[in-house]
Amino acid sequence: MLTVKTSDTITPKTVAKQVVAGTNYLFVCDVVNSKNESYQEEVLIFKPLPHTKKPATVVKTTKVEKDK
Which of 15, 43, 45, 48 has the fewest Cβ atoms within 10 angstroms? Predict the structure, then answer.
C-alpha cells in the first residue's frame, strides 16, 4: 500500500541496485507529510531491460518502522 502522498516531501537517502532480468532499485527515503510528521519509506522500483521498451514501475513501498 502506498503511504506517500503527492503533497509529501520525499528525500532519497540511500539506494541499492540488483541486476536481474532488468534492474531492481531499493530507495530508502525520508518523508515529511503535510502534518509535518516525518518517517522513512522503502521504495522498490523495477526497470526492465531496454529491449522490452517497458517503463520502470514502482513494485512496492514499505513504511520503515522505528525500533522501540
Answer: 15
Strand locations in the chain (E): 9-20, 22-32, 38-48, 57-64
| Mean pLDDT taken over the chain | 87
d(CA 28, CA 50): 25
* Residues 41 and 33 sit within 8 Å (Cβ to Cβ): no
Listed range (3-7, 39-43, 53-57) with the worst mean pLDDT: 3-7
How far apart CA 18 and CA 32 sit, in angstroms, is 28
Residue type for 56, please? Answer: A
Give the residue extent of every domain in the chain: 9-64
